[in-house]
Amino acid sequence: MSQAVRVIWDDALVSYDFGPGHPLAPVRVELTMALARDLGVLDGAEMGGCVPATDDELALVHKRDYIEAVKAVSRSGRPDLRHGLGTDDNPAFVGVHEAAALVTGATLAAARAVWRGEAEHAVNVAGGLHHAMAATASGFCVYNDPAVAIAWLLSQGASRVAYVDVDVHHGDGVQAMFYDDPRVLTISLHESPRTLFPGTGFPQETGAEGAEGSAVNVALPAGCGDAGWLRAFHAVVPPLLREFAPEVLVTQQGCDSHALDPLANLMLSVDGQRTAYAALHGLAHETAGGRWIAVGGGGYELVRVVPRAWTHLIAEAVGTPVDPRTPTPGSWRALVEERLEETAPLTMTDGRDASWREISEGYDPADATDRAIMATRNAVFPLHGLDPMP
């Protein structure tokens, strides 16, 4: 059982809404919180509220003129294409600043709870907007809440923060904001930029001069499933976290790596994702003194994937994992029918065996996933004094 765990939630977080038909539908976090509540997962957590991030907090990573530009769009609803607002990915809407600042404030509330010792772990499933850049919106993301939280931790005296991003898309915004900062280790496991947005995240991206090895990218081939993904994770993430020894572990838990996700091409199951959450939880205790901040991220299969995946995440953080065979509550299935007129999954599992083999058991140069693993290890491990060979 974990020590105190803070789950950040405010019903107003669903105001981060780009409108009908947009993939990032806020109903996904509404259904997540409802499922966690109906399963009793939230009974073991402290519920915490949030307030919008201030301009000064946003300016820890964002340009002041960008914040003012977002505010102008927020007042008028008119596009500002120079700052990435008004595109298909990031439509302009009245209230966009307030909605995005609240999401960021929720992740900051999680960071404060962990840094101040009020909670060992903290979760904000509405967060994880990792594509936003210092002066532009990108990839459904207006303000980069994990980057703001990391910068805030540094401002409070943290000397080493590790960020692990398991979203199917490269965590480009967070990497860019700390690419020259050796205090922050960013690790991203994602579908190859050759086949998926944003087109970055090659293994050769390892950090700027003076911060060599601070950026780590595992670019996985389209079609990679549970066994390959977990093999890659365990071949790269634990050795680097053990060597880096962060004071805080921040993780972005995008679940768009699932086989049913409509925007990407990896083939994970909810069971594989649940296994990854357990591994990250264990690494938080092993390498970061238990200090773990987890945020959401991508995930566009709104009923069959996101609510179950992130309910497993919350349950893992709380320390009472949900048995995958557990039936989904009838009350939750009725809510899904009412809100989306869809049939909800009956259990918390996809029925998959999420097992994998360690890379040390044998490297296969003919296997695309193994080649991706070794490309990353060869690029980064020597910079940390680690042997890249399995």
Description:
The chain has 390 residues and is α/β, with parallel strands linked by helices. The model has no long low-confidence stretch (mean pLDDT 98). The chain has eleven helices and eight strands. The longest helix has 20 residues, at 96-115. The chain has one domain: Histone deacetylase domain (Arginase, Chain A), CATH 3.40.800.20. It is 36% helix and 10% strand. Strands 2-1-3-8-7-4-5-6 form an eight-stranded parallel β-sheet, sandwiched between helices. Residues 22-315 form the Histone deacetylase domain. InterPro entries: AcuC, HDACs, His_deacetylse_dom, His_deacetylse_dom_sf, Ureohydrolase_dom_sf.
* Element-by-element helix/strand order: EHEHHHEHEHEEHEHEHHH
Summarize model confidence as the mean pLDDT: 98
CATH classification, class level: Alpha Beta
| Structural domain count | 1
> Percent range for helical residues?
25-40%
What is the distance, rounded to the nearest whole angstrom, between the alpha carbons of the first and last residues? 33 Å
Structural class call reads: alpha/beta
Total number of strands: 8
Number of helices: 11
Radius of gyration, in angstroms, nearest whole number? 19 Å
What share of residues are in beta strands?
A: 5-15%
Strands of the largest sheet, in order across it? 2-1-3-8-7-4-5-6
CATH architecture: 3-Layer(aba) Sandwich
CATH structural fold name: Arginase, Chain A
